[in-house]
Specification:
This protein is mainly β. It has a single domain, classed as Hemopexin-like domain (Hemopexin, 4 Propeller). Helices cover about 5% and strands about 40% of the residues. It contains 3 helices and 17 strands. Strands 13, 14, 15, 16 and 17 form a 5-stranded antiparallel β-sheet that branches. Strands 1-2-3-4 form a 4-stranded antiparallel β-sheet. A 4-stranded antiparallel β-sheet has the order 5-6-7-8. A hairpin with a 7-residue loop joins strand 13 and strand 14. It is globular, with a radius of gyration of 16 Å.
């Protein structure tokens, strides 16, 4: 099994052209314009306050997935960032000073997640183009699509159906993290597993026939 070099990822606030990649209790910042990491590893607790349930006994704070509200939720959620851990999630406000306190903690039922997603999600990103206003959650070999407008779960499907016949077999069984594209890559969403990533449009169509490319060095740094 490939080692998880990134466990969660999310775009920064509107106009920042940055994405944040998380592993354990650390994160690094990536610049979409410069196409490189611009900030070395920092502690999650330096920038965010998290509830005790996000901190297992004897371990530092961590979470399973993250997603921004500015693309999925529209103007009403431009400043919002969501972290997911087990059956719970928190909401943070980008505009508050660091360490940003969580506004609330609630159950995943707030996202209408059920079935295999009732006890957690492993990755998330927002839909693009005709799928704008949708957030996609990934767990194991399945993904779930949530509609912001309807506040409802549209469906749960197998990851392989995102790109039938072209999704790499190892990605079809599950992914480590996902993130919305930004800047010149704003029409894409990205899935990561081990050292590799694939870019998807719509996201029901993957670029380059879902050919994975190395995104991380052997030490886990962004390549």
């Amino acid at each position: 099994m490939a080692k998880s070099l990134v466990e969660a990822a999310v775009n920064g606030p509107a106009g920042s052209n940055r994405a944040l990649f998380f592993r354990g209790d650390q994160f690094v910042a990536y610049d979409w314009v410069q196409d490189r990491a611009i900030l070395g590893a920092k502690s999650i607790s330096d920038d965010w306050g998290l509830p005790n349930t996000f901190q297992p006994p004897g371990f530092a704070p961590r979470f399973d997935a993250a997603v921004g509200g500015r693309e999925g939720g529209g103007a009403a959620h431009l400043q919002h960032l969501y972290f997911f851990h087990g059956p719970e999630y928190t909401r943070h406000d980008w505009t508050t000073p660091t360490p940003r306190p969580f506004e609330f903690v609630d159950a995943l039922t707030g996202w209408k997640l059920s079935g295999p997603f009732a006890d957690g999600a492993e990755a998330a990103f927002n839909g693009k183009g005709t799928r704008a206003g949708k957030t996609y959650f990934f767990k194991g070999g399945n993904y779930a699509r949530y509609s912001w407008a309807d506040d409802a779960l549209d469906y749960v499907r197998q990851i392989g159906l995102i790109a039938p016949g072209t999704m790499p077999a190892d990605f079809a069984t599950g992914v480590d993290a996902a993130v919305d594209g930004d800047g010149a890559y704003a029409n894409y969403g990205y899935l990561f597993k081990g050292r590799y990533g694939i870019g998807c449009q719509a996201p029901e169509r993957c670029a380059r026939q879902c050919a994975p490319r190395p995104c991380f060095g052997t030490g886990g740094d962004l390549a």
